[in-house]
Amino acid sequence: MRVALPNLRPNGHAPQPTKVFAITGICENPEFRLGSGSGDFCVVHMGARGTDPFLIVRRVSQEGAVAATVRVEWEGVFTVLANDDAEAEQLFKDLIAPAQPEEDVQRQWTDEAETLRMFADILILA
């Protein structure tokens, strides 16, 4: 299933998606490798006073119609978000599965405000 990506607003505000596919869980071995030439956008935040480090990867495909993202917190807690469940599963397979996710991985379509906001914020990075 796929939902349309929201249009970026020219005033710089984050677009507001209506629904997003989420895969969440914890990695037992949070070590990640991006494939060379993958075209993925990556941000590594090493942390600042009062904040924890994190990794963000964004993959856009099908001429910009599909976006899949992943955010991994310091402890290995991950959140894969996408407007297409097949692309979310592919990013999970490529990046998260090698990091040995624990058995309680959750998969669901959601319209929860905080999750939609996280997806929107990642979409407007660089």
Annotate the secondary structure layout.
Layout: E1 20-26, E2 41-45, E3 54-61, E4 66-73, E5 77-82, H1 85-96, E6 106-110, H2 113-123
Antiparallel strand pairs: 1-5, 1-6, 2-3, 3-4, 4-5
Counted by DSSP, the helix tally is: 2
- Morphology: globular
Beta content: 25-35%
Rounded to the nearest angstrom, the radius of gyration is 14 Å
Features:
single chain; 126 residues; alpha+beta; globular; 6-stranded antiparallel beta sheet
Summary?
18% of the residues lie in helices and 31% in strands. With 126 residues, the chain is an alpha+beta fold.
What does this structure look like?
This protein has 126 residues and is of the alpha+beta class. The chain is built from two helices and six strands, in the order E-E-E-E-E-H-E-H. It has a six-stranded antiparallel β-sheet with strand order 2-3-4-5-1-6, with helices on both faces. A hairpin with a 3-residue loop joins strand 4 and strand 5 (77-82). The longest helix is centred in the last third of the chain and has 12 residues, at 85-96. The model has no long low-confidence stretch (mean pLDDT 85).
